[in-house]
């Protein structure tokens, strides 16, 4: 008889993992350098078609922040064969949905549609890879759109504005310190030449990854990819992906962000942390488990138990690690103090929890429980065709390989308590941190 949830999850996940092999994933490269990943899922006659470009906000020229996201919007304008807006209208007319998104390391475009419409999707997506047509009216219209998007998502949110300031302080030299959507004053100056030059350089097959997931077969996808994407020539001047790195950080940084719209004061501390690297994902795996142990659950994590229940100093305490990243990333702790508790008291209590965690042994039962939950979540994630496609797309644009994606679940399971402690000791360096207080007024900043 299974007597615990952790044991139940272990049995379920182990069985499920044995039934899910990477045999349903095929990858190859076209002659022009375009990588292709095919994920077979024949449960429904549906396909997800995605094109990922290794060009995100961190690849933008200095002074042109926001151009990657700006270009994402502009790609829904016309081409030599499609009128503005016709791309999405055609997808909808055929019963599908489409969209796009931009991050630090990539820009991606996708459609979810009936499998027999895949050739049409490839025809249209390959068309806008090379035949985008823009004019000054397009620039003016979409520049206003992205500025309004910034107003809605950032300017109207004190939390978002605070995150921008904290991030800019954490990354003193790297482009991760620049917001993905861009700084407002630079967005206002983006012009046709900025968009076209970014498009001409980065929107090329040798800088792109095609992901097709769903009711398809690899040979079918290969033939279609060669037909539609294969004739597009590679970009001969595609630059090597080298970004400015962080200098040695020699002092902790502190920021008090004040905005009268803040409803409850809170604190966030972010540390520079290593990312997942191809063939060397072990440290990232240890940090992934560290985040769960410290702040993954209000009921069972170290911060949650100590601050929310034992001392009732906080109404919320958490930890997070953004391991998916091409370059150095961040590990963060956050606390929302309870009524009557100052930010200084909450921060001191948070630091004490971290010190206690580093001084004692990790509870083997807690580590086993988290590993079981992670393994189960990996299995549940296999149910989402689009989620699987996005996992491979993000990984490949951030320096990982298909084999790295396949290896990740077992690497997580192999992490030891000693690995976690070693990773924590490396990351918890105040000289490589920013501590931010978010308050409504000066009286709360104490």
TrEMBL record:
The Peptidase M16 C-terminal domain sits at 190-372
Originating organism: Loktanella gaetbuli
The record's section on InterPro entries has: Metalloenz_LuxS/M16 (IPR011249), Pept_M16_N (IPR011765), Pept_M16_Zn_BS (IPR001431), Peptidase_M16 (IPR050626), Peptidase_M16_C (IPR007863)
Organism domain of life: Bacteria
Record has Hydrolase as a keyword: yes
Similarity comment: Belongs to the peptidase M16 family.
Question: SUPFAM superfamilies per the record?
Answer: LuxS/MPP-like metallohydrolase (SSF63411)
- So which residues are the signal peptide here? 1-18
Cofactor(s) needed, names only, are: Zn(2+)
Domain Peptidase M16 N-terminal, chain residue ranges per copy: 36-182
Protein name as it appears in the record: Insulinase family protein
Q: Does the keyword Ribosomal protein apply?
A: no
Enumerate the UniProt keywords alphabetically: Hydrolase, Metal-binding, Metalloprotease, Protease, Signal, Zinc
């Amino acid at each position: 008889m299974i007597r615990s949830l952790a044991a139940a999850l272990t049995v379920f996940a182990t069985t499920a993992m044995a039934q899910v092999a990477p045999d349903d994933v095929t990858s190859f490269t076209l002659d022009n350098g375009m990588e292709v990943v095919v994920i077979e899922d024949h449960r429904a006659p549906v396909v997800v078609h995605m094109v990922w470009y290794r060009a995100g906000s961190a690849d933008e020229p200095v002074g042109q922040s926001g151009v990657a996201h700006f270009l994402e919007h502009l790609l829904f304008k016309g081409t030599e064969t499609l009128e503005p807006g016709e791309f999405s209208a055609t997808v909808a007319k055929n019963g599908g949905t489409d969209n796009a998104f931009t991050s630090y390391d990539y820009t991606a475009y996708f459609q979810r549609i009936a499998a027999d419409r895949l050739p049409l999707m490839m025809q249209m997506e390959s068309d806008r890879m090379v035949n985008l047509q823009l004019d000054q009216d397009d620039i003016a219209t979409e520049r206003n759109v992205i500025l309004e998007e910034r107003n809605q998502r950032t300017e109207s949110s004190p939390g978002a504005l605070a995150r921008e300031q904290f991030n800019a302080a954490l990354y003193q030299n790297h482009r991760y310190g620049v917001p993905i959507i861009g700084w407002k004053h630079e967005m206002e100056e983006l012009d046709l030449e900025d968009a076209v030059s970014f498009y001409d350089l980065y929107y090329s097959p040798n800088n792109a990854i095609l992901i097709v997931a769903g009711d398809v077969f690899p040979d079918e996808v290969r033939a279609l990819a060669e037909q539609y994407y294969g004739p597009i020539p590679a970009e001969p001047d595609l630059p090597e992906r080298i970004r400015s790195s962080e200098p040695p950080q020699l002092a902790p940084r502190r920021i008090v962000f004040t905005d009268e719209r803040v409803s409850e004061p809170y604190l966030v501390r972010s540390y520079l942390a290593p990312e997942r690297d191809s063939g060397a994902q072990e440290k990232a795996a240890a940090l992934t488990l560290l985040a769960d142990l410290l702040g993954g659950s209000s009921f069972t994590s170290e911060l949650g138990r100590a601050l929310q229940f034992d001392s009732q100093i906080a109404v919320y305490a958490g930890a997070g690690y953004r391991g998916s990243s091409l370059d150095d990333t961040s590990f963060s702790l956050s606390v929302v103090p309870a009524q009557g508790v100052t930010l200084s008291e909450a921060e001191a209590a948070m630091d004490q929890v971290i010190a206690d965690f580093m001084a004692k042994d990790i509870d083997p039962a807690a580590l086993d429980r988290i590993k079981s939950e992670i393994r189960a979540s990996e299995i549940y994630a296999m149910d989402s065709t689009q989620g699987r496609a996005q996992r491979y797309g993000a990984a490949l644009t951030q320096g990982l390989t298909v084999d790295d994606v396949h290896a990740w679940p077992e690497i997580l399971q192999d992490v030891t308590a000693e690995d976690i402690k070693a990773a924590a000791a490396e990351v918890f360096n105040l000289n490589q941190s920013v501590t931010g207080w978010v308050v409504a007024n000066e009286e709360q900043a104490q």
